[in-house]
Amino acid sequence: MNWWQRLFKGKRMERDLDSELRFHLEQQVADKIRAGMTEDEASRATRLEFGGLAQIKEDCRESRGTLWVASVFQDLRFALRQLRNSPGFAITSILTLSLGIGASAAIFNVIDAVLLRPLPYADQERLVYPVMIARTGDTLPSSYLSYLDERAQQRTFDALAGYSMFGRVNLEGSSGPAALSAVKSTDNFFDVFGVKPLLGRTYLPGEDQPGRDNVTVLSYEVWQNNFAGRTDVVGKDVQLDGSPYSVIGVMPAGFRYPLEARDAVYTPLHMNPSWAKSRGMHWMRTVGRLKQGVTKEQARTDLNRVMTDLARAYPEHESGHTVASLLSLDVASNSLDRFGKRTLAGPLGTLAMAVLALLAIACVNVAGLLMARGIKREREMALRSAVGASRARLMRQLVNESLVLCFAGLLGGVLVGWAVLKAMKVFLVQAMSRGADIHLNLSVVAVAAALSLLASLLASLSPAIRLSGTDPNRALRAGSAGAGTGRSQHRLRSTFVITQVALSLVLLVVSGLLLKNLQGLLHTNLGIDPGRILTTRIELSKGHYAGRDPITAFYNPLLARIAQLPGVQGVGVIDVLPVQGWGDGYAIHITGQPPYPPNLDMSAETRFVSEGYFSAMGLQLTRGRLLSPSLDKAENSAGTMVVNQAFQHKFFPTGADPVGAHIDDAPKPELTSRIVGVAINIRQALREPQMAEMDWLMDEIDPKDRLQNLNSMALIVRSNGDLSALVPALRNAVHEIDPTVPFKTPETMNDVVSDSLMLDRLEGWLFGTFAAVALLLAVIGIFGLVNYEVELRTREIGIRMALGSTRVQVTRLLLGKVALLMLSGLAIGWMLTLALRKVLSTVVEMHAGKDFLLLTSMTVGLALVGILASLIPAHRAASVEPVQALRTE
Amino acid sequence: MKNPTKFDLPQGTLDLLILRVVALRPIHGYAIAQRIQQMSQEALQVQQGSLYPALHRLEYKKFLAADWRPSETGREAKFYRLTHKGKLQLESETASWARLTEVVGLILQGPQGESV
């Protein structure tokens, strides 16, 4: 019979073995009776001769050589039965492990996808993104002309390409218009990345010049989603923004640049003709491939040599314009600011530490639970060993039990990890340029699993070694765990609790600070009521408006129609939506003021708005008048603008009236623009301080330039009614006027605020969850420890009370111990927090003074929770009846 | 509890004895123990603790086969019989045992025929 037969015919085997041995016994008894013994004597003598029946059976099984597999299954069955018998323990352990494993699997997945996985380019280490800055230190991209000079004069790059990502482009397909990301670039763009197209070709040299540039390369996603992956797409004509483009190629799956450009079509530059001729128009970002063997520093020096030459040739546009650094693309794509100084690696690293802390807490907790359970099972183990189970056999059984726990925990962990990633999906996609690439990755799960397996084995090993070595004689005689058994173990459990409290405190502090900061940002006073404003972006297809005025043909009818909708109190458009980003600082000078020092940033943001914008956004006028199409016409020789209070503050610090002032934006005084009003502030970008802003009426733009400036605008609608009910009406209004405009579901300004805080919310959410779980686990740990202590010391407590201790004294004794543990844990936690302050600062800054109340209340709260968790067992201890306690022994 | 007349069987010897006893006729475990005791003129007493693991080991190695049939008392018992493989094993083990005892005897008697 081989091992599988043994496994599957196990029951029969056991029965056979049993009857075989019983037959022997009976025969022996019969023989003895025949020899003259009484029946009682005979069976007694036989049993003595025979020895341990279980032991013989075990040896028989073992001699079949197949025991290992069989006993593993037997152990598993047994382990499951044991766990079923103590569901509280099982559920707690499995849940604990699931949470620990799941959380770490999720976070490590994110790290793997965002930081570790190579970028989808060839020779990634040679690809760089130049960060160009102006004299003020702020970033300043290249103009087209200066890019051409850089490209011609540099000596360190194989290819230096320019590109821009201005808004989106409308692809007209069979199923209506689709808004896609448009990456517009110079002809050598694809040479930089060294990635071959999947189908067709990429740009030929010179294909970025007008006349030859109506070609497009599709990304794999667009090819799949919008062209159903048809191979005959190459050579076909498609309509982009209403103009025909010929598809020349399709990029392979995974290729994407910039990484945040999902669903992209790549086209040549197609720039505004005026931009092509202007050195003052800084709009072009660059990306380059270094020559083999060239370092970043060499390349930076080389580029700056070119920039210095340019500054000499064109001092008014280029002086002070330099390359601050060359960023690797992985740094650039994970950058949280414009200089690559803060990247996702910081917060993600801290998150990884948080999740490891959580995993450690979980493991410590399970080890503690196993240990407490071990105490109760000492008798059981003694009994097993007395009837002949070997020490190795007992160990194996105990380890198997923890393996079952670990396996269940792993399954739960995969589920939790999947759920966590799913829940984070929206956050991730928005907060990280590679967020869409994050999926539950089996190899990462495997690593987390190995980690947790190791951890739970270690956790189970020490109780297993101790238990399997139980001396049956002593354990059985003593009847329960003697007072001496648990000393070292007790110390270990105390260490466990202290560790948990300490780690929980760190997590609590970080998440508390994060959530406080997040609350602060979310409730930034925008100066408006963001809950009553709906906004969506309108993208016009330029081809449809060739030779037409977008204001008279589209915006005016649309705004008029929306104003008629029920509940609408105001409607307007603006080119750059507040909160969401900054625009392009425009250095100005107020007529009549002394020249500004050259290093002082005297710039203001510029915006184009419609007449109704201010009332739709709820921006009250504090001085002068609002903009009006009847007064501020395109035909007027001089422009007019409304500025914000920050502008007034910045340029008129002495309290002079800005209304009526001019800015020097034209050589002749009668042509300079005039300020006609001042409105209250609204934040341009949530994270940036309030900036000075000048708003121009869009009607003032020369009709032939209007399409170029106004093809992408944010629609603002204020309503006092149900905002979501307004959405279908808005869709109808847009489509009645131009069915080729893709209608994106509007958001409230509150949503816009939340969206721009995606990474902060993600961090806050994760840390908050981790801290909550850690707290829960710490409570379980403390409860378990005290409970176990009470169980272990019932006899001692009984004696104390018999000798005159009061219930209060007993309770105080226990609570004193808990208090000591909590204090040690909190102290170590604080030391840890302070030691890690530098690392933690990538996520959150700590200000002892400002956050004192929060920090103190969290510390005290944790201590209170610990005391509360021990109250129930302490109460139990206090209600021990001395007589009962002494008798149970 | 040790029986003074009892020998400790050298490792592997029990297997050989069992094969020898089973070779006579199909026989159950109790009878095997009885038979060895009897054939050794009560000098060897086989402990159940070693007999049954040995039987199962031999069965697992396919030297023995077993089936259930009525015993002399009428109760069903597990009867072991020698397989062909077991027969070969018995022959080779017997031969090497004979050779071993001969050699050991030679040495113990010594070249001058002195006995210790």
Structure, explained:
The complex is a heterodimer of chains A (889) and B (116). By secondary structure, chain A is an alpha+beta fold. Chain A has four domains: 3-65, no CATH class; 141-320, no CATH class; 345-522 and 758-888, no CATH class; 542-739, no CATH class. In chain A, strands 14, 15, 16, 17, 18, 19 and 20 form a seven-stranded mixed β-sheet that branches. A six-stranded mixed barrel of chain A has the order 3-4-9-6-8-7. In chain A, α26 packs across α27 (794-802). The longest helix of chain A is centred in the middle third of the chain and has 41 residues, at 391-431. Chain A is elongated. The two termini of chain A are 49 Å apart. Residues 479-484 of chain A have low confidence and may be disordered. With 116 residues, chain B is an alpha+beta fold. Chain B has a single domain, classed as Arc Repressor Mutant, subunit A, CATH 1.10.10.10. Chain B is 53% helix and 14% strand. Chain B is built from four helices and three strands. In chain B, β2 and β3 form a beta hairpin. In chain B, α1 crosses α4 (84-109). Chain B is globular, with a radius of gyration of 16 Å. The two termini of chain B are 30 Å apart. Residues 1-5 of chain B have low confidence and may be disordered. At the A-B interface, α2 and α4 of A face α2, α3 and β3 of B.
Topology:
The complex is a heterodimer of chains A (889) and B (116).
Chain A: H1 3-8, H2 10-34, H3 39-50, H4 53-63, H5 67-85, H6 87-116, E1 127-133, H7 144-153, E2 157-164, E3 168-173, E4 176-185, H8 189-193, E5 199-200, E6 215-218, H9 220-227, E7 237-240, E8 243-250, E9 264-268, H10 273-277, E10 285-290, H11 296-313, H12 315-318, E11 322-328, H13 329-333, H14 345-376, H15 378-386, H16 391-431, H17 442-468, H18 472-478, H19 487-522, E12 533-539, H20 550-564, E13 568-574, E14 586-587, E15 603-609, H21 613-617, E16 621-624, E17 640-644, H22 645-651, E18 662-663, E19 673-679, E20 693-697, H23 703-710, E21 712-719, H24 723-737, E22 747-748, H25 749-756, H26 758-792, H27 794-802, H28 807-835, H29 837-840, H30 852-878, H31 882-888
Parallel strand pairs in A: 4-9, 6-8, 15-20, 17-19
Antiparallel strand pairs in A: 1-10, 1-11, 2-4, 2-10, 3-4, 3-7, 5-8, 6-9, 7-8, 12-21, 12-22, 13-21, 14-15, 16-19, 17-20, 18-19
Helix pairs in contact in A: 2-3, 5-16, 6-14, 6-16, 6-17, 7-11, 14-17, 14-19, 14-26, 15-18, 16-17, 16-26, 19-26, 19-28, 19-30, 20-24, 26-27, 26-30, 27-31, 28-30
Chain B: H1 13-24, E1 27-28, H2 29-39, H3 48-60, E2 64-70, E3 76-82, H4 84-109
Antiparallel strand pairs in B: 1-3, 2-3
Helix pairs in contact in B: 1-4
